């Protein structure tokens, strides 16, 4: 008895923990949606989901072929249509070809089958619908996005050009400064010395100091030498 309870509990865990396949639909073209094994009967205990999402417009779901197990309230096998802010809609049994248009831009299809009485399954065609208002809104938003990208690119290019211009001005200023310093250095090297006396003194040439007695003797010597040929006995000859 205990082993039987453990077995039943394990079966329930396996059934409750089955995975659900999820398929995302975002294309602008028509999409065909099939149940597993279509047109042969779908498997039992299956959960599968299709999620359709877009920013603009609506979705059109066309029931091309639809045969599921029929039940009260579609509590056994069903295809459930879920939309935002609306009540889920379940479909089961046999349905003739018909079209269902969504209210919003996001729709979720959920298929569920129980453990008995499988049927043929279904084939759906999913289309994306956009009216004039949706097209205008899409074009406006795309233009806004493009303008934002262009402004960002222009701003980036402006920063690059401004930085390059600043570097060029800085390099030019440094070159001009170095050129001015070099020209000033050359002018100083070729300029004559204003104070020659100081250069003589610095070079080691020193004139001997002249005294008063030396000046007198130098004067007498010059006087005698200049008048010697013109005098006799100390007198001038005329």
Automatic annotation (TrEMBL):
Keywords: Disulfide bond, Membrane, Transmembrane, Transmembrane helix. GO terms for cellular component: extracellular space. Pfam families: CUB. This is CUBN. SUPFAM superfamilies: Spermadhesin, CUB domain. Residues 206-238 are annotated as: Disordered. Residues 218-238 have a biased composition (Polar residues). The lineage of its organism: Eukaryota, Metazoa, Spiralia, Lophotrochozoa, Mollusca. The keyword Nucleotide-binding does not apply. The chain crosses the membrane at residues 156-181. GO terms for molecular function: serine-type endopeptidase activity. It comes from Mytilus edulis (Blue mussel). Residues 8-129 form the CUB domain.
């Amino acid at each position: 008895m205990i082993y039987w309870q453990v077995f039943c509990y394990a079966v329930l865990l396996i059934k409750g923990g089955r995975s659900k396949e999820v398929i995302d639909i975002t294309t602008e073209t028509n999409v065909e949606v099939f149940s597993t094994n279509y047109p042969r009967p779908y498997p039992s205990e299956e959960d599968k989901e299709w999620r359709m999402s877009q920013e603009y417009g609506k979705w059109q779901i066309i029931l091309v072929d639809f045969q599921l197990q029929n039940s009260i309230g579609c509590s056994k096998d069903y295809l459930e249509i879920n939309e935002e802010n609306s009540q889920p809609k379940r479909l089961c049994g046999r349905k003739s070809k018909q079209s269902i248009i969504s209210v919003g831009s996001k729709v979720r299809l959920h298929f569920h089958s129980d453990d008995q009485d499988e049927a043929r399954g279904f084939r759906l065609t999913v289309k994306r619908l956009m009216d004039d208002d949706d097209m205008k809104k899409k074009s406006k938003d795309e233009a806004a996005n493009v303008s934002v990208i262009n402004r960002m690119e222009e701003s980036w290019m402006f920063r690059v050009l401004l930085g390059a211009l600043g570097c060029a001005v800085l390099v030019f200023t440094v070159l001009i400064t170095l050129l001015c310093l070099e020209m000033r250095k050359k002018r100083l090297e070729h300029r004559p010395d204003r104070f020659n006396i100081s250069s003589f003194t610095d070079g080691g040439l020193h004139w001997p100091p002249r005294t008063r007695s030396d000046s007198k003797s130098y004067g007498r010597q010059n006087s005698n030498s200049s008048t010697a040929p013109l005098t006799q006995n100390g007198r001038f000859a005329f």
